Amino acid sequence: MRKVCHDFMARGGLAQYDVATKLAREMVSRPVLYVGPDDSVELDKFGDFRSGYEALSNSHRYMYHALGHVRIFLVAYQKTGEAEFLVRARRHVHDWIEDNFEETPEDIKYAYYDHGAAERLGVMCTIWSVMRSVNASAIDTAKIEHCLIAHARLLGSWSFTGRHQPVFIHNHLVFQAIYCLLAGILLNKHPESDSWRQHGSDILAAQVDGLISSDGVSIENSTGYHLGLYRVLRDCTALLLSTPIALPSSVAGVRKRIAAMGSFTERMRFSADRMPAIGDTRYTPNLPIEKSLQVTREQLELSTRLAMFPDAGYASIKDDVGGQREMNLTMIASALSQTHKHDDDLSITLSTNDGIQWIADPGFYKYDRSELSMYASSVMAHNAPYLADGQYEHKLRRAGLDGEEMTASDLVRVEGWHKHYPGVLVTRHLLWHSALSTLVIEDQVAAESRNETSVTVGFVLGDGITAERSESNSWTLWHRAFDISGPSIVFPDGSAICEDDATVFPMGRPTSASRLVITRPFVNGIARVQTIVTWSDLEPATLIDTVAHSRVRTKLD
């Protein structure tokens, strides 16, 4: 069981074995609390937060009470066997118990916030198991066990389960379920362990059913949260089921839905370890990767260019664009929940498997109401049509996607719509010409009122990408630092401009970026914009004429 606990602790992020060992060594010489590899805050001389917590970010408060620093020390101890790491972990746990369990906590909100309390129970399980394995003093072990049992009772209570979130279906409850199950397995001789296991199993089954769409996608509108939830469910259920303790059948029953999550994850990857930063997701900076790490449709065993996830509201087109490169084009119209949602319906991203994001979703900044955070989630920061003065109101079930692959003509069609502006229907048609390595984007905005004057379509370029004007309506994308060429973007309806007012957030750091912008007027209540994105060598005029003759009528016409 000790190894199961450690494997729980070492899943991903800062707690990966090698990363944790490096950070633990730094934390021994300089007491800090890490939220990210480059995001830390100094602890006081006692290595604790005994005062001044109000000045800290919510993320740091959460991480401290989740015992994130203890988790790093425990994983480093498992990796190296160095006693110093265990000593530090033990001291920090005892400090937390004395300040926040045996006494009324100063920061009561985050001391018993649902997600942090769940992660802390996992840490308590692990250190209790380790202390027993090294024959620690009975007093040490008993103190931790007493706190562990109290936490298991807390997380095993329906009143605590429904206390923090306005809805019962939420990713935080997955962590409550998993650690409730872990405590029930670890303390399997405790008279309440059966109820902990059953409670955890009931919550887990409900969360998987409610949080994951019928096509295997997290409904929380974020590729980052999808990936995190998928890894937690995949790895933790496998670990739980590997123990000799019998678990309710519903735990094994969630594995089919987890496998579907894996299919979506593979489809959305544009390189070995990268996905578009949709919703509240950290943007990964552009960086070329070795050929050996580049993924292709063939390697992923994807038999089709198009994958539709209509229930969740995602589309993905993968295809060869010449020179042993493959592109990954995504479009989103997700409308199943508001959680982690940005104003991004009908937004596209365009990446290549050499690790470059040409048209990018800028990603997530911080969980606050700062100007940059508000910008990062706004419609202006995404790649879709918008009304500059319109009131964008995201509502459930007011957006959708449809698509098909027409193999006989080498065409792929995707169409989407949303009604997030009152009295306005926004539609986007994508037509991918495989033989020409060309994408045609047709946007239409129809307004009931004649008060609207113009619609704007913008394309945010990834970090380090420049746009060079080659003709009046054509721009060629380059990553000059890496000497990598990208597609050309052609605007047949009028001249676009390149602005330097965009921002992307690689690993949460605001970074200036460019965006191509075109604005078109409304005529009789309708505004239309056409954009062509191409890797073709054809002259723009020839290309425009060629694609004009292959127009496919869509369901939204």
Automatic annotation (TrEMBL):
GO terms for molecular function: lyase activity. Its main location: periplasm. The keyword Iron does not apply. Residues 304-520 form the Heparinase II/III-like C-terminal domain. This is Heparinase II/III N-terminus. The keyword Lyase applies. One of its GO terms (cellular component) is periplasmic space. It comes from the Bacteria. InterPro entries: Chondroitin_lyas (IPR008929), Hepar_II_III_C (IPR012480), Hepar_II_III_N (IPR031680). It is found in: Periplasm. Coiled coil: none annotated. Residues 76-284 form the Heparin-sulfate lyase N-terminal domain. Keywords: Lyase, Periplasm, Signal.
